[in-house]
TrEMBL record:
This is Membrane spanning protein. The keyword Membrane applies. It comes from the Bacteria. Keywords: Membrane, Transmembrane, Transmembrane helix. The chain crosses the membrane at residues 12-35, 63-82, 89-111, 123-145. It comes from Staphylococcus nepalensis.
Length: 153
């Protein structure tokens, strides 16, 4: 049994893979368990809009449609366990960076609506997703500059 020691490339790939899996799970929890009709209704009330059933459905579907795309994109990071390709590196960097920007657009309104309807614990999944995405994006940028390559290739 000749055990090959883990290289920086393998460790980095596993970090990105498992972190993106955790992000996908937490973001799905936020989208489908926390962001329900009552939160969207409160979001509309807080913005001084009339919360009709149609408006609630449209806003909820919009959040969930875009969110599902981010969940799927984050799940592609699991590929880094087996295949660590340069394109995957930059794709995951783009996913993390765009996920942060997308959620920061209306983060205050969403958090306020969640806190009005539910408890403080319910903002944790999205908060953790944003923090992990930011840390991973910065880490990936620093590693690519420091190594002058991605996944040590």
């Amino acid at each position: 049994m000749n055990a090959k020691p883990e290289t920086k490339e393998v460790r980095t790939g596993h970090l990105i893979a498992y972190s993106s899996l955790i992000i996908a799970i937490l973001y799905a929890i936020h989208l489908f368990l926390i962001l329900d009709d009552s939160v969207v209704k409160q979001l509309l009330i807080n913005s001084k809009q009339k919360p009709s059933e149609n408006a609630i459905g449209v806003i909820k579907n919009s959040f969930q449609f875009t969110g599902v795309m981010y969940v799927i994109a984050n799940l592609t990071g699991v590929i880094a366990i087996w295949n660590r390709h340069t394109y995957l590196w930059w794709f995951m960097f783009a996913v993390f960076a765009s996920q942060i920007l997308y959620n920061l657009v209306n983060i205050n309104a969403v958090f306020e609506a969640i806190l009005d309807v539910k408890s403080m614990v319910n903002i944790l999944p999205l908060t953790i997703v944003l923090i992990m995405s930011f840390v991973l994006a910065v880490y990936m940028l620093v590693v690519s500059i420091k190594r002058k390559s991605t996944f040590n290739r």
